[in-house]
Amino acid sequence: RRQKKLAEELMSVAPDIVFFVFSVCNRSHDLIDSINMFENLSPTCLVASHLDETDRWGGITAMAEYLNIPVSYVTDSPGGIGELRVPDAAAIARRLLKLEVSVHAE
Fold first, then answer.
1. CATH class in words for 2-96
2. What is the pLDDT of residues 10-44, one digit of tens each?
3. In sequence order, what are the beta bridge partners of 48?
């Protein structure tokens, strides 16, 4: 009920851009389930956070494909706090295809 009220209040503002911030640490299925809770907000852009906490970045492509919207920013910062960067598609593809060494490898 609270989420519905929040969505109604936000939509009354009629924003042109709506960012959906998500953690890549979550499983793709869980991310897609979370979208159902916020579908009334009609996100237009994605922000992928917590990139430093996992080597599994499949959620990035799952979210972009499922919503058919671009990933506008990424961040390594915990909780999405910190510097936002424009995503590097080639770096994301290399990570997904395991073509580059993990930053966590010893």
1. alpha beta
2. 778 878 898 999 888 888 888 888 888 777 778 99
3. 22, 74
Instruction: Please report, for the chain, the start and end positions of each structural domain, with discontinuous segments joined by +.
Output: 2-96
Tokens of 61: 């492509």
Which residues does 96 contact at the CB level (< 8 Å), separation at least 6?
57, 58, 60, 61
CA–CA gap between residue 100 and residue 103 (Å, rounded): 9
**Total Cβ atoms within 10 A of residue 53:** 13
Quote the CA–CA distance of 24 and 45 in Å, as a whole number. Answer: 15
Contacts of 35 (CB under 8 A, 6+ apart): 20, 43, 63, 66, 67
pTM exceeds 0.85, yes or no:
no
